[in-house]
Design a protein that fits this description.
seven-stranded parallel sheet; 655 residues; Rossmann fold; disordered C terminus; alpha/beta
Length: 655
């Protein structure tokens, strides 16, 4: 049997230019091969530049295992399915196939398109004809597409327009009960996935698979979680419940025509429709808060409990009416009405189940309110995902989890069996110590003092000028980012791009194209942003990214952890996000630059070493003049080979 190292060498030799030898990639490929053969779980920290996708694709495609790869971003999903996996298949000469599978809501529903008929307008209030025209355009596309994936579109449809031509797992009755089931685009995608050797999915879809008890995805032997640092958060969402008031309104709209002929139908539909307003009124004042368990009449949040009971009663009456309409229509050949009724019944049933779960929440779950006062969302989240993952996931498949930054304590937090799990850190091939500098601005005042924010703006201006722009300025809050943009745009002659200016992809592309520009952004840009080369030479981080103290789920986890809460809950998350932000700087072997943390605690706090251990091994300094000289050299001399000055010898005192 050919070893993973030999197979990897064959694949990399087929790369443009012959590829390059990466010892960390070889070690990871060998470890993945061992995990598959010995059926052991594997957690791999593979720094930027390792080439981790090839390191797990080569041994998985060379094996006879059925594999699912779960990714955190669409860009990585497209890269795996459209580039990396086909390259490996071609180089290996194996008859392996790769398929992409997305959630049902990503595909057009031909039954709903058929029910639209020739209508080109929908009775929506804003922009007469705009939504209706989009629906007509989507319907025309759905009738001719072979795949039906929303990502095929050359425009971004309004969510309401897309909802008119799509369905979700909550209300789809399945191919056997749908008049258009024989030509269902989502089912065709599922069949392609069932026939494939490797299926590439979004991590959220894998979470839905776990939550469903394993019925969403085809049977498989191995799952690879790429960007594994997001698995706990995704599974927390997937294994919980989400109830938005809009679900009541959508259900009422879908049932209205079906119950038009029943005496109580209009009243029941109206009651369900107004439930959306009642739920919004009850939840809006509680956004960001946990709810008292039980929500009974005597509980602190008893009015929420009453509203939920009211909603359950109204939904129960709606189900009764839909069942009555079903009996009335028995023997009548109206496939369209039957399909619509099946969808409404399923949606009502799922909503009732979710309400029941919230009302009966146990000690291991947190009911809380997310969103905004105008659009609140009731959520139920597990405090600890480990028990469910241990039972439903790790007992059934071999798991490989990999990321450039694997959170501390991943094995325990995800429920991986310690005696059947191996850990590996293959490092990064990049020469961080020669090419990058970590600067902590210890001269800045304490963040709690009123002069701290103006001082940060002054520091940013100095650093950005020294770098000649070419800065990704990361902020831990929208307010801090907005204040910095307002303060620095008038003071800098260099372009300042801000997160609200454009959609994320367009904004990153513009930043990449304008070398003198700086991009100011919040948490959504701390990961998944890849801007190699001279365009990005400075990454600034406004403060250590500790999680919000009032996050309801983390608050419950802190209570459970007791005195160990800071070390077990807050510090690991801050370290992972700090490493992700710092990781935006060096993306290729030739990249050089500075990561500047504008928070003195990274040099002075007792926990600083825990955080610094998570950041790539850059040289460190607290000397702003040295940093400015280095940045100025980079902006003026593209051939500068390394660092110079007093910090080149190692860490500064206190770090």
């Amino acid at each position: 049997m050919t070893s993973a190292a030999d197979t990897l060498a064959r694949v990399t030799a087929a790369l443009p230019g012959g590829g390059e030898e990466r010892p960390g990639q070889v070690r990871m490929a060998e470890a993945v091969e061992t995990a598959i053969v010995e059926r052991r779980h594997l957690v791999v920290q593979a720094g930027t530049g390792t080439g981790k996708s090839l390191a797990y694709l080569v041994p998985t495609l060379a094996s006879e295992a059925r594999v699912v790869v779960a990714t955190a971003t669409k860009a990585l999903q497209d890269q795996l399915a459209g580039k990396d996996a086909p390259l490996v298949v071609e180089a290996l000469g194996v008859p392996a196939s790769v398929a992409v599978l997305k959630g049902r809501g990503n595909y057009a529903c031909l039954q709903k398109v058929a029910e639209l008929g020739g209508r080109a307008e929908l009775p929506l209030e804003d922009g007469p004809g705009r939504i209706g025209a989009q629906v007509a355009r989507l319907a025309a596309w759905a009738r001719r597409t072979e795949v039906g994936d929303r990502d095929e579109l050359d425009f971004a449809p309004d969510p309401r327009a897309w909802a008119a031509v799509s369905t979700t797992a909550r209300d789809c009755p399945g191919a056997f009960r749908c008049p258009s089931g024989h030509r269902c685009l989502a089912e065709a995608a599922r069949q392609r996935a069932a026939d494939a050797d490797v299926v590439v999915v979004n991590t959220h879809l894998y979470g839905a698979h776990v939550a469903s008890g394993g019925v969403v995805l085809p049977p498989h032997d191995v799952v690879v979680f790429d960007e594994a640092h997001e698995v706990e958060e995704v599974m927390t969402a997937s294994l919980g419940v989400e109830i938005a008031p809009g679900r009541f309104g959508a259900l009422a709209a879908s049932a209205r025509g079906l119950l038009a002929g029943r005496p109580a139908g209009a009243e029941v539909v109206a009651d369900v429709a107004t439930t959306a307003e009642v739920v919004t009124a009850a939840l809006g004042p509680r956004v960001g808060r946990r709810l008292a368990r039980g929500n009974g009449p005597g509980a602190e949040d008893g009015d929420v409990g009453h509203v939920l009971e009211l909603a359950r009663g109204r939904l129960g009456r709606l189900v009764d009416e839909l069942r009555g309409a079903e009996r009335d229509a028995a023997g009548q050949a109206d496939a369209e009405a039957t399909a619509r009724r099946d969808r409404a019944l399923l949606a009502a049933g799922h909503l009732l189940d979710d309400l029941d779960r919230v009302v009966s929440a146990g000690d291991d779950e947190v009911p809380w309110v997310d969103g905004t006062a105008a659009s609140p969302v009731l959520r139920l989240s597990p405090i600890d995902v480990a028990p469910v993952l241990a039972e439903r996931l790790f007992n059934h498949v071999t798991a490989v989890l990999t990321s450039a930054t694997v959170p501390v304590g991943t094995i325990a937090r995800l429920g991986l069996p310690p005696d059947a799990t191996d850990e590996l850190d293959v490092g990064s091939p990049f020469d961080y110590r020669d090419h990058a500098l970590l600067y902590v601005a210890t001269s800045l005042p304490d963040r709690r003092r009123p002069e701290a924010e103006p001082a940060i703006h002054d520091e940013l201006e100095t650093l950005i000028r020294a770098a000649g722009g070419r800065t990704l300025a990361l902020f831990t809050s929208w307010r801090a980012m907005t204040a910095a943009v307002e303060a620095l745009r008038p003071r800098l002659e260099l372009p300042v791009l801000a997160q609200p200016d454009l959609p994320k992809a367009a904004l990153v592309e513009r930043f990449r194209a304008e070398e003198a520009a700086s991009l100011f952004a919040t948490l959504g840009f701390w990961q998944g942003v890849d801007v190699p080369g001279r365009t990005l030479s400075l990454v600034t981080i406004d403060r250590i990214p500790f999680p919000r103290p009032d996050d309801p789920v983390l608050e419950a986890r802190r209570e459970r952890a007791g005195p160990r809460a800071f070390a077990e809950v807050d510090l690991p998350r801050a370290g992972t996000l700090l490493a992700q932000g710092a990781g935006r700087l060096v993306r290729t072997a030739d990249d050089r630059g500075v990561v500047a943390v504008l928070d003195r605690r990274l040099a002075t706090a007792s926990y600083r070493r825990v955080l610094l251990a998570r950041v790539p091994p850059m040289r460190r300094t607290t000397d702003r003049a040295e940093v400015c000289a280095f940045l100025s050299g980079l902006s003026g001399l593209s051939g500068l080979s390394g660092l110079s000055g007093p910090a080149a010898g190692g860490d500064r005192p206190g770090q």
